[in-house]
Amino acid sequence: MPLTFLLAADAAATTEPSDSATSTVEETVGAVADATVDVLSILARIGSGVLVGIVVAFVGVVVLRLLGRRRSLYTEVARFSRTPLYAVCALFGAYIAAQVVASDMTTSWRSVVLQALLISVILSATWFIAQLLKAVESTVVGSVQAAGDQGRANRVTTQAQVLRRVAVAVVTVCGVVGAVMTFPSARFAMGSLVASAGLVSVIAGLAAQSTLGNVFAGIQLATTDAIRVDDVVDVNDLHGQIEEITLTYVVVKVWDERRLILPSTYFTENPFTNWSRRSHQMLGVVSFQVDWRVPIAQMRAELARVVAASRVWDGRTCALVITETSTTTVTARVTLSAANPDDLWTLRCHVREELIGWMQREAPYALPRTRVEVEQVEVAHDPAPEKVARLAEELVALQNPGDDGALAATTTMQAVETDPIEAARV
């Protein structure tokens, strides 16, 4: 047999696959192709369910906007809940489509896909309900603010915020629990937890005592109306405005733009000052230390002119009285009113500047001053020690009369002539 023929036969034997290998490859390729077709078919059906859900959500949004022309609630629902509504409808459509084509899936794929879609539907529904609660809150607050009663609007705003946060917390917990309960093992664990709920609740209550105290304090603040959003308060020697009230803490905006974060229990356990409990209208005082010669009538007239020209005065109170006096000055107190704390601060500063300028221009003699009076007084020298010595000599001379006595008498007469005090004594 020629060598070339043998080599060709060996090459053919090594390059041509066997019949069994060829059939295996063809089966694998066919299985992959069938699986790909099945997956694409399933995805197409699920996609059609998503598309139907989006169409339903679009129709729902359009209907809400049309209804919103008559009632603002529907407009707020469409504004806050549009995105979660699309998510809920799309995922729910996908879940329904997956249920329809579940018979075409393998066992492993079926359980995974259905559970993932079910969890997505539960979480998106939780999101939708939370946004729906926010829409209800916005509608209620907006309707109260439109009435024009600022005090009632602040009270309703505070209560709506707290109640909405409580409801959102409950809905979120229920949504998470519902998503976890889709797992069979979690159901068993939840059953065991419910069986031992008494002991667990005691342990959890002790561990979260501070947090639960703040939560209940937040609910108490909302229901008792002790503080409201935009109230002006004094806390920890700081003057500020209530910016936000949550279940666990209160945000106070201080005048220098700082935010003071206080636990809710602070306002239930400590005294504080609420300047706007009933109304935002406030009274303020500006004091001046002026001279006794201040023209009070002219100062009152200038105050009336300045206040009348101000845009922040609410027209209720404007008075000037003398409240205190001292040896050098008198205290002129100006009482002013404004519609809110910001306007009152602006008005006080404006009045202070204008009256100071008026006194400098028109009544400089009314500016405080200190008076000093210089008086010259002549004080004679006290000759008491010399006189005592001289009197002692006179006594000695009187007790021993003689030449010394005559000398003492002569000295005495000379002293009488020169010293009026000595003359009076003699």
Automatic annotation (TrEMBL):
<dbReference type="InterPro" id="IPR010920">
    <property type="entry name" value="LSM_dom_sf"/>
</dbReference>
<feature type="transmembrane region" description="Helical">
    <location>
        <begin position="189"/>
        <end position="208"/>
    </location>
</feature>
<keyword id="KW-0812">Transmembrane</keyword>
<feature type="transmembrane region" description="Helical">
    <location>
        <begin position="85"/>
        <end position="102"/>
    </location>
</feature>
<dbReference type="Pfam" id="PF00924">
    <property type="entry name" value="MS_channel_2nd"/>
</dbReference>
<feature type="transmembrane region" description="Helical">
    <location>
        <begin position="108"/>
        <end position="130"/>
    </location>
</feature>
<feature type="domain" description="Mechanosensitive ion channel MscS">
    <location>
        <begin position="211"/>
        <end position="277"/>
    </location>
</feature>
<protein>
    <recommendedName>
        <fullName>Mechanosensitive ion channel MscS domain-containing protein</fullName>
    </recommendedName>
</protein>
<dbReference type="InterPro" id="IPR006685">
    <property type="entry name" value="MscS_channel_2nd"/>
</dbReference>
<dbReference type="GO" id="GO:0016020">
    <property type="term" value="C:membrane"/>
</dbReference>
<dbReference type="GO" id="GO:0055085">
    <property type="term" value="P:transmembrane transport"/>
</dbReference>
<feature type="transmembrane region" description="Helical">
    <location>
        <begin position="42"/>
        <end position="64"/>
    </location>
</feature>
<keyword id="KW-1133">Transmembrane helix</keyword>
<dbReference type="InterPro" id="IPR023408">
    <property type="entry name" value="MscS_beta-dom_sf"/>
</dbReference>
<feature type="transmembrane region" description="Helical">
    <location>
        <begin position="162"/>
        <end position="183"/>
    </location>
</feature>
<keyword id="KW-0472">Membrane</keyword>
